[in-house]
Task: inverse folding
C-alpha cells in the first residue's frame, strides 16, 4: 500500500515524509538480527565464529574491524586500516564502510558484509544521507538473502523500492546498480511482479543511456524471473538476446552469465544434454577462474544427476555449493538443492543420507517461510521415502502440490505431480497415477518444457499399456528392450553406474555404454533418470496387475 502511494507523482511530499520517518525509525542492526531464525543453515566460515547481534553476546563492530586488519586482501586491509585510524564516526568513514561491504559481498563473505553494511546504514542515517541510506540498506537486503535475515531483507528492499519508484528516469539512470540489486532481491523474496517491473524499467533506461552492462545483466535477471514463473520460452528469448549482445560488445563475464542462465533454462525444460554443453561452454569463456565458476560447476553436477551419474553428480553439486550447509546458495534456494541431493542418495539406496537431506530441506524451508521452499522440502521428503513408504511419499507430494499452487510455481508443481504419479504407481493405483502424470505433462507443456513433457508422456504410456498377467521381459514401452538391455535398464533404475553395471553383469564397460545408448534411443528419452522412472512405473504397475489376476488365470 505504501509503495502504491509512493508511485503517484502528486504524493511526492507524502513520500518525502515517509522516508524521513523511516530514517528516524530505522530498525537498528541489533534488532534486525533478532528476527533471524536459528534453524537456517549458516555458512561455514572456519575463521569467524557465527556471531549473533551486537549486544547479544557477539563482538561489537570494532572487534570485527580489528580482526580484519591483518587480512590477506590488500584492498580490504587498506580500508580497514583507514577506518581504524579515523573511526567510524568520521564523515569519511561512510564511503569506506560501503566499499568494504561491497568487497565482502564479492568474496561471498556475507556475515562480514552484513556487519559493515549495518554500520554504514547507521552512519548514513546519522548523517542524513538519503543516497547512502539506500545503498547501505540494499547491501543489508543482499546479505539477508544469503544469511537468512529475510525480515531485514524485506524491510530494506521496501525502503529502496520507495526511493527508486519516486525517482524519474534521469535519476534512475544514475542508480542502475541499485535497481539491479533490488530486482534480484525481490526475486529471492518471491515478489516476482515487483522484480519484473523493476527489471523492465531498468532495461528501458539502461538501453536508452547505452549503459550496456546493466542493460544486459537486467535482461539476464529478467529471464531468470520468467524462468521462476514457468515461462521458459520468454526466458530463453531474453537470455539469448543478452548473450548475443554481450558477445557482440565484448563482455566475456556477461557471456558467461548468460550461458549459465541458458543452461538453467534448458535444465528446467528437461534438455539435459544442452544444459551440460552450455555449462561447459561457460567455463571456457574466461581463461582463469571466473566469478560464476561455482554456478557452472553446480549446473554440470545437476546434469550428471539427471543423466544417471548419481554419485559423481552429487559430489560435484556439493563441491560447487560449498558443502553440506550450502553457503554458496541463497537461503530461499537451499530446499530445492536439498531435494535434488535427497533424490540422488535415495536412488543410491543411501536412505539415511536421503532423510538427512530431507531434514535439512525442511529446516531451511521453515527458516525462510516461503511456499516454494516448503514445496521443495516436501519433495525432498517424498524422494527420501518413495522406495520404502510410497504412502508417505504420496502425502508429501500432495503437500508439495498445495505449496507450489500457493507460490504460483508452475515447474515445481509439475515436478510434484510427477512424484504423486510415481507414488501412486508404486502402490498399483493406476487411475490416480495416470491423472497425476497427465497434470504434470500439461504443466510442462504450458511452461514450454517439451522434453520434460515427453518424458512424462512415456511414463503415462508405461502405465496405460502394462498388460495384466504379463510375465514377459517387461511391460509397455520397455517391451522393446532385449533381455540384456532390460537387465541394464533395471540396474540403471537402481542408480548403478556404468562401471557397476559392467561388474554386476560381467561384461565390458564399452558394452554397457553401447547398451545404454540403445536403451535411450528405444525408449526415446534423454537421460538415465528418465529410463529409471519409466522402468519403475512400468514394472510397479505390472506387478499390481498380476496380483489382481485371480488364481487360475483370467482375461
Result:
Amino acid at each position: 500500500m505504501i509503495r502504491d502511494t509512493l508511485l503517484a507523482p502528486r504524493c511526492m511530499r507524502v513520500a518525502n515524509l515517509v522516508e524521513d520517518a523511516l530514517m528516524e525509525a530505522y530498525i537498528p542492526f541489533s534488532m534486525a538480527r533478532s528476527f533471524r531464525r536459528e534453524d537456517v543453515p549458516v555458512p561455514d566460515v572456519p575463521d569467524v565464529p557465527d556471531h549473533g547481534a551486537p549486544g547479544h553476546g557477539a563482538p561489537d563492530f570494532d572487534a570485527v574491524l580489528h580482526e580484519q586488519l591483518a587480512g590477506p586482501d590488500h584492498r580490504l586491509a587498506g580500508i580497514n586500516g583507514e577506518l581504524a585510524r579515523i573511526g567510524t564516526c568520521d564523515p569519511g568513514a561512510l564511503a569506506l564502510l560501503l566499499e568494504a561491504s561491497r568487497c565482502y559481498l564479492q568474496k561471498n563473505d556475507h556475515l562480514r558484509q552484513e556487519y559493515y553494511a549495518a554500520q554504514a546504514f547507521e552512519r548514513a542515517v546519522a548523517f542524513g544521507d538519503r543516497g547512502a541510506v539506500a545503498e547501505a540498506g540494499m547491501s543489508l537486503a543482499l546479505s539477508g538473502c544469503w544469511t537468512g535475515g529475510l525480515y531485514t531483507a524485506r524491510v530494506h528492499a521496501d525502503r529502496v523500492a520507495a526511493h527508486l519508484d519516486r525517482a524519474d528516469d534521469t535519476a534512475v539512470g544514475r542508480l542502475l546498480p541499485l535497481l539491479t540489486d533490488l530486482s534480484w532481491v525481490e526475486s529471492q523474496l518471491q515478489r516476482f511482479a515487483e522484480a519484473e517491473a523493476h527489471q523492465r524499467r531498468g532495461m528501458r533506461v539502461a538501453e536508452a543511456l547505452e549503459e550496456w552492462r546493466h542493460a544486459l545483466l537486467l535482461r539476464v535477471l529478467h529471464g531468470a524471473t520468467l524462468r521462476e514463473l514457468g515461462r521458459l520460452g520468454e526466458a530463453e528469448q531474453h537470455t539469448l538476446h543478452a548473450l548475443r549482445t554481450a558477445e557482440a560488445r565484448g563482455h566475456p563475464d556477461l557471456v558467461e552469465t548468460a550461458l549459465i542462465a541458458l543452461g538453467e533454462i534448458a535444465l528446467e525444460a528437461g534438455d539435459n544434454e544442452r544444459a551440460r554443453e552450455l555449462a561447459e561452454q561457460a567455463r571456457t569463456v574466461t581463461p582463469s577462474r571466473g566469478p560464476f565458476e561455482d554456478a557452472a560447476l553446480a549446473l554440470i553436477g545437476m546434469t550428471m544427476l539427471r543423466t544417471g551419474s548419481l554419485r559423481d553428480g552429487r559430489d560435484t553439486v556439493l563441491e560447487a555449493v560449498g558443502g553440506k550447509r550450502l553457503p554458496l546458495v541463497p537461503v530461499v534456494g537451499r530446499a530445492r538443492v536439498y531435494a535434488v541431493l535427497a533424490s540422488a542418495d535415495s536412488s543410491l539406496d543411501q536412505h539415511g543420507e536421503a532423510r538427512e537431506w530431507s531434514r535439512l530441506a525442511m529446516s531451511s524451508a521453515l527458516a525462510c517461510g516461503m511456499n516454494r521452499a516448503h514445496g521443495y522440502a516436501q519433495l525432498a521428503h517424498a524422494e527420501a521415502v518413495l522406495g520404502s513408504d510410497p504412502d508417505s511419499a504420496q502425502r508429501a507430494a500432495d503437500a508439495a502440490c498445495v505449496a507450489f499452487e500457493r507460490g504460483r510455481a508452475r515447474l515445481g508443481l509439475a515436478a510434484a505431480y510427477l512424484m504423486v504419479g510415481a507414488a501412486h504407481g508404486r502402490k498399483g493405483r493406476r487411475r490416480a497415477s495416470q491423472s497425476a502424470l497427465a497434470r504434470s505433462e500439461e504443466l510442462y507443456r504450458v511452461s514450454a518444457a517439451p522434453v520434460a513433457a515427453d518424458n512424462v508422456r512415456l511414463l503415462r504410456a508405461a502405465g496405460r499399456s502394462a498388460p495384466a498377467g504379463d510375465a514377459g521381459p517387461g511391460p509397455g514401452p520397455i517391451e522393446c528392450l532385449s533381455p540384456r538391455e532390460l537387465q541394464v535398464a533395471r540396474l540403471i533404475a537402481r542408480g548403478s553406474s556404468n562401471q557397476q553395471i559392467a561388474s554386476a553383469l560381467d561384461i565390458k564397460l564399452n558394452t554397457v555404454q553401447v547398451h545404454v545408448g540403445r536403451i535411450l534411443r528405444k525408449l526415446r528419452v534423454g537421460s538415465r533418470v528418465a529410463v529409471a522412472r519409466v522402468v519403475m512405473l512400468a514394472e510397479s504397475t505390472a506387478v499390481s496387475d498380476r496380483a489382481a489376476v485371480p488364481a487360475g488365470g483370467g482375461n
Notes: Residues 1-58, 466-475, 541-555 have pLDDT under 50 and may be disordered. The chain is about 75% helix and 0% strand. Residues 528-548 form the longest helix (21 residues).
